[in-house]
Amino acid sequence: LEGPLAIWDEDFRLVVSNHAFAQSLLNQKEMLAPGTSLEDFLNLAAHSGLFEDAIGREGEWAAASAKALRAGPIRDMTRFTNGRVHQAISHKTPSGDTLVIGTDITELETARVARESYARQLEQAHEIAHHQAYHDSLTRLGNRRFLNEELARLSDILHQKGGRIAALHVDLDRFKQINDTRGHAVGDAVLCRVGEVLQNLVTASDTLARTGGDEFVILRYCGVRKCPPARELANAIVAAFQRPIKVDGVEYRVGASVGLASTDVSDVSDLLTDSDIALYKAKSLGRGRAHRFDRGDFLEMAEIKTLSDDLLRSLDAREIVPFYQVQIDAKTGQPVGLEALARWRHPTRGLMTPDRFLSIAEDLEVVDRIDQLVFEVALAECMAAFEGVPAPSLSFNISSRRLMSGGVLLAAQQASDYPGQVAFELLESIFLDDQDEATALQLDALRDAGVELEVDDFGSGHASIIALEHIAPDRLKIDRRLIEPITTSTRSAGMVRAIIDLASALDIKITAEGVETESHADILRSLGCGRFQGYHFGRPAALPEVLQAWWPEQVRP
Ligand code: C2E
Ligand code: MG
Ligand code: MG
Hints:
Elements: E1 5-8, E2 14-17, H1 19-26, H2 38-46, H3 58-71, E3 75-79, E4 85-92, E5 98-104, H4 106-134, H5 144-161, E6 164-172, H6 175-182, H7 184-201, E7 207-212, E8 215-222, H8 230-242, E9 245-247, E10 250-252, E11 256-263, H9 271-284, E12 290-292, H10 295-316, E13 320-329, E14 335-346, E15 350-352, H11 354-364, H12 367-385, E16 393-398, H13 400-403, H14 406-415, E17 422-427, H15 428-433, H16 437-448, E18 452-458, H17 465-471, E19 475-478, H18 480-483, H19 490-505, E20 509-512, H20 518-527, E21 531-532, H21 543-550
Parallel strand pairs: 11-12, 14-16, 16-17, 17-18, 18-19, 19-20, 20-21
Antiparallel strand pairs: 1-2, 1-5, 3-4, 4-5, 6-8, 6-11, 7-8, 9-10, 13-14, 13-21, 14-15
One magnesium ion binds next to strand 18.
């Protein structure tokens, strides 16, 4: 035996020991004298400086070791200050002696420790990998995979205990604009902040996940015990994002739409599709609202899906064409302008107006392509039709997407070839939402290119007077919802008069939209309105038809 060995008699006096015993336990060459008591030996050992556990508490250690050996048998691991590790084993012989042997297990022990730390590292790596696979690295919320697993888990609970699962699809209304105009770093920070806001609105038992760019989903399981209605959560989310959120000291109005669906059957496979459809519906109803799924939405959605696919095809096939509505000078009654309005000449559905396809185009983010198509064709048609004669002004509707694109500047430059005035109509909301440097610069560039700027549907939104003064448009087009009641309500007439007076004070021209009757025209004329547009004078039509009605001499055979 190479390791330390000692035999103690019944009274724990040393009978015999070996060199290794003296060497490795006492750090001395001379063997320990037989007859030495266990306590004496342990006191020597405690003060040898070899036993890690004994350092600083030598007496205590010696007493405890003696007690253990006397009680025996032992099987202990001992760490030495030189880094070695022994296993000490004691054994009582039939004659009453106690045999103690030590085995150096340093290598075994090192291997075991290494094995354990390796296992721990593996476990951690696995945890991290698992977390990454199930979480979104930006917001640290769960991802789609996480959502699917949670849904499966909740569906099991539903199956066993009954109850109801609600799903809320949340989509930000203006995230894309923020991301496009302020850059991706700001976009990311906004998303993180949105994640925090949502986290604060949900309860601890809700599941919250980010499933796409600016799309979040919440699952709420409601068992037999009452829980807060999902509808309230949906409304709270909409309300929370109506207020601006603050990121790095800057306020952003992101706005949110929420689709809500719920089920009490254990087949939950349709739940997320339903809440997604409801979200789509919420957006098509005007965004910034919550909508609960119903069956009708589903059919509508199927139709929208078909139209979406079709719309992309139609752009390549150039099926989007301009119609024109005439604008009349209030004093002379002469035609002085045309507004180009998009129509979809569908091969099987026939002619479609923008209410059928514009919101779809917005979701597909192709409105700017529609604007571009209408512009190209209308400019070419009208240049040909009004060659060498006083040409009417030509107005185009410009989406916010188109406004911030490079294409619109190019279009403005091309427009200078047209013999008449070209105007770009911008919705009121553009003026309010994006009063930033970039928009202001773009508007200036358009004006420099010779294009007039008009505010479309004025009075329908919330453009402030301050914004008006700031942007200084050339013309306001008063929304037809304000015009329509002026023949029956003096209050409405008064409001229109106020707008006209305000505009003239700011040196802004006025067009009234939706002039449907002679008496509308008469009242508007008396209020000082400069231009009329409406069914009373003509509905939007293809150019040959409009020429026939108003410029017959320009009709080519
Ligand atoms: P808008 O620019 O305000 O155009 C006027 C809309 O009012 C047209 O509808 C026109 O047909 C309708 N309208 C004209 N006079 C009357 C009237 O007397 N009574 C009534 N009830 N309605 C009248 P349309 O052509 O369906 O266009 C709807 C909207 O779609 C437009 O409103 C405009 O915002 C948008 N839009 C049309 N073409 C384009 C386009 O090429 N690009 C973009 N971005 N938007 C377009
Ligand atoms: Mg318009
Ligand atoms: Mg309008």
